[in-house]
Sequence to fold (309 residues):
Amino acid sequence: MFCSMIRIRFQGRGGQGAKTAARILGTAAFLEGFTAQDSPLYGAERRGAPVSAFVRLARGPIFERGLIAHPDLVLVADETLLAHQAARVLEGVKDETPVFINSSRPAQELKAEGACPGRFITLDVTGLALARLGKRGVLSAALGAVAARLVGLKEAGVRSAVEQELREVGLSASTIEQNLTLALECFRLVSAAPLTESVPAEAPPTPLWTPQYEAPGRGSARITAPANAPLHETGDWRTFRPVLDPEKCNGCWLCFAYCPDGAIRMDRQDKPVFDYDHCKGCLLCVEECPTHALIVERETAGPRRKETA
Ligand code: SF4
Ligand code: SF4
Fold:
């Protein structure tokens, strides 16, 4: 457990529940008598894009605000984020900082691959969610519970926090119960981590800046170069990918029609070909395929396959 204040950063993808996980952690700590502050950062992106959420827990008032650049604990909702340049999940991490990663692979293996700082801890939260709930994707309760365990909070507070926060987002009683069971299983599978409280350097005083008026033609957002959307490779937002079983495909083109990102083209045999550089892994194509010809494969941190039929 910590002495004065600790800073926790959740790194996830839009839709995985990093924001709610942060709220669950904050509420669990609050119920144990700590001061808690949590805030999410979405950026301008959508489902699958990297997002962060920040939690500060303290024994007294918290005067610090904003992003956490020097975390005492990091939770990564998906191992694929480690290789994501823009997500910068290990920014500010020191050798002794615990870094929890949702992965089926051993911590040493992931650490050896990246030669990066931090004390890695792994647990296959997605695998457990698939086995227990039959669902992939939203991991908020489990991640919140893991974080609570790592900082040394008690199970009773986690139980109440999961129930309270999931009720607030409008989930049914049975869904909350399923998530709670998964969360408590994850809570018991990890151990409290020794935390080193960082003391951020005093920021130099910044002079106040008076904004200048800009005419709307100059001050509003504009597209300055045409047809450059393909340069943004959204394929690394994916945590699961669609894969074709050609034997079951009847060539109906429905997957092509439903893909919101134009990431499917049809070949001469009327079979879909996936552009994995841009497929975000929304899996709408899988949902809509009438013959169940599309199966779902989990992504790992290794190299991604390019276009494939
Ligand atoms: S999962 Fe399917 S529908 Fe979604 S972006 Fe990828 S190819 Fe398109
Ligand atoms: S929706 Fe399914 S059956 Fe139809 S073309 Fe796509 S993969 Fe084949």
In short: The chain has two domains: 5-189, 233-298.
